[in-house]
Structure formats: C-alpha cells, structure tokens
Automatic annotation (TrEMBL):
<dbReference type="GO" id="GO:0006635">
    <property type="term" value="P:fatty acid beta-oxidation"/>
</dbReference>
<dbReference type="InterPro" id="IPR014748">
    <property type="entry name" value="Enoyl-CoA_hydra_C"/>
</dbReference>
<dbReference type="InterPro" id="IPR045002">
    <property type="entry name" value="Ech1-like"/>
</dbReference>
<keyword id="KW-0007">Acetylation</keyword>
<comment type="pathway">
    <text>Lipid metabolism; fatty acid beta-oxidation.</text>
</comment>
<dbReference type="InterPro" id="IPR029045">
    <property type="entry name" value="ClpP/crotonase-like_dom_sf"/>
</dbReference>
<keyword id="KW-0276">Fatty acid metabolism</keyword>
<dbReference type="InterPro" id="IPR001753">
    <property type="entry name" value="Enoyl-CoA_hydra/iso"/>
</dbReference>
<keyword id="KW-0576">Peroxisome</keyword>
<dbReference type="GO" id="GO:0005737">
    <property type="term" value="C:cytoplasm"/>
</dbReference>
<keyword id="KW-0413">Isomerase</keyword>
<dbReference type="GO" id="GO:0016853">
    <property type="term" value="F:isomerase activity"/>
</dbReference>
<dbReference type="Pfam" id="PF00378">
    <property type="entry name" value="ECH_1"/>
</dbReference>
<protein>
    <submittedName>
        <fullName>Crotonase/enoyl-CoA hydratase family protein</fullName>
    </submittedName>
</protein>
<comment type="similarity">
    <text>Belongs to the enoyl-CoA hydratase/isomerase family.</text>
</comment>
<keyword id="KW-0443">Lipid metabolism</keyword>
Length: 270
C-alpha cells in the first residue's frame, strides 16, 4: 500500500478506509491533500477488490477545510496584471475542483464518517460522497462566507440536491454552524450517533453490507443515480434500458437468484 503525506489508506474485507491523517493540523487540506486524493481515488476505481469506501478524519475532527497557508501562498503568487492573475487563479480553482470530482465520479460508493469540525472545504468534500454519517456533536459550517469569498469547489453546486435550495442558501449566506442532530434533520447526514466509536462501527457495518452485494449491480445503481442529477426522467429511463441490456447478462444475476431461492448468502466475483 502506498504511503501518503495527508492520508492513511487501508484495504480490508473489500472496504477501502481513506482517513485524512493530519490530526495535529485539524486535518486541514494542504497541498499534498489535494494531489493525493486524486491518486487515491484513481487506485480505488482501478482496484476491483475495492467494493466500497469509508472516508474519515483521524483524531477529534473530520477536517477544518483548506489549509490557510495554501490561501496565503496563492495570494503572494499574484502579480500586477489582473488578467494574468485571474487566469492563474481560475486554473488553480479548477485543479482543486478536480480533486473532489474524483470522489464524486468514483464508481464505488463513498461513505463519509464525520466527527468534530467539518468546515469550509470539508463540506465540499462530503457533498461529493454518496452518504454521510456523523456524531451528534459534529459541527458543520460553510465557512467561506466569513472569509470574504464564495465556496468554489462543490458545496454550492452539490449541496442543494442534498439538503434543498433554501436551507443551503441559509447556511451559505450566514456561515452558521449546525450540529449532528440538526444536520440529520435537514438530510445532510443520514444518521447521527452518540460518539465516534459508535459512528465508525455503524459505518463499517453498512460498508460491509454494501460490499457483499453484486459489484456490477452497485456500479449500475450509482451510475444511474449520478446520471439523473443532470437529466430528465425520460433520459434516465432510456439510459438504464441500454445499460441493463448488457448488465442483465452478468453472472451476478444468476448468483443472486440462486442464493435467494436456496436462502444462502451469495458470493460475487470482484
């Protein structure tokens, strides 16, 4: 397994555990974070043994968002020409967006387990995940507004589809913090748990349940859900018809039906 500066990555029982590993810096997202997450999720996509991903943060907090040193370095790199500055900043922002697009585009389900701070860029990150779970005392905040900027790596684009437009606007305009209980009530997290050990046990139990399903069926289900974010119902029905014309010929369907009829647990190939 590759060693990373900003992450700890483990693969066990077909579950890839990707942990942000900068607890001494509240898991702030430094330069290594942004490049390494792309490499990690490419490995996940390319590795058939990986069926599902758990994304967490080491220590007391999930992540305090982008490392402020990165923002300071970006500011010092600017010159006098407004046009050249804008071109430079635009390329840098698109590069950061690509890091979280790698999570969103991953063919395997990604489950976020959140405790403590989940602030700024961390909201952009969890919005790119399939599902989110937290502790009751977790703290969520779209903090960019208090830094004099608009969130620019996915929160404003993905979060309305998760918690609704009105609530997203409230959080984005005010920057106010919500705890795990309120996050659950608005649909930002599926469930909130009393403490981190309980959270992690529940998330890994869910991951194991998903990992036991047909990987072909899971891939198709995720692809259809993602496709429907940006298309009409008729488009989605046409796409699933074409997709399943091939995928229904998979051996997984026979395995699942035989297991169901014999009341046995199915075992699917990677």
């Amino acid at each position: 397994m590759t060693e990373y500066q900003a992450f700890r990555v483990e693969l066990k029982d077909r579950i890839a555990h990707v942990a942000i590993n900068r607890p001494e810096k509240i898991n702030a997202m430094n330069a290594a974070f942004w490049s390494e997450i792309v490499d990690i999720f490419k490995w996940i996509d390319d590795t058939d043994e990986v069926r599902v991903v758990v994304l967490s943060g080491e220590g007391k907090h999930f992540s305090a968002g982008i490392d402020l040193q990165m923002l300071a370095q970006a500011a010092t790199a600017l010159g006098r020409d407004v046009g050249r500055n804008a071109e430079h900043l635009r390329r840098q922002i698109l590069k950061l967006q690509a890091s979280f697009n790698a999570v969103d585009h991953c063919r395997k389900p990604v489950i976020a387990a959140i405790q403590g701070y989940c602030i700024g860029g961390a909201i952009d990150l969890i919005a790119a995940c399939d599902m989110r779970y937290s502790t009751l005392d977790a703290q969520f905040s779209i903090k960019e507004i208090d830094m004099g900027m608009a969130a620019d790596v996915g929160t404003l684009q993905r979060l309305p589809r998760i918690i609704g437009d009105g609530m997203m606007r409230e959080l984005a305009y005010t920057g106010r913090s919500v705890d795990g209980q309120e996050a659950q009530s608005m649909g930002l997290v599926n469930r909130a748990y009393a403490d981190q050990p309980t959270l992690m046990a529940a998330v890994f139990a869910l991951a194991a349940e998903i990992a036991a399903k047909s990987p072909v069926a899971i891939r198709g289900t995720k692809e259809m859900i993602r496709y429907m974010r940006d298309h009409r119902v008729d488009d989605g029905l046409e796409y699933i018809a074409t997709w399943n014309a091939a995928m229904l010929q998979s051996a997984d369907l026979k395995v699942a039906m035989a297991a169901h009829m014999s009341k046995q647990k199915p075992e699917f190939a990677d």
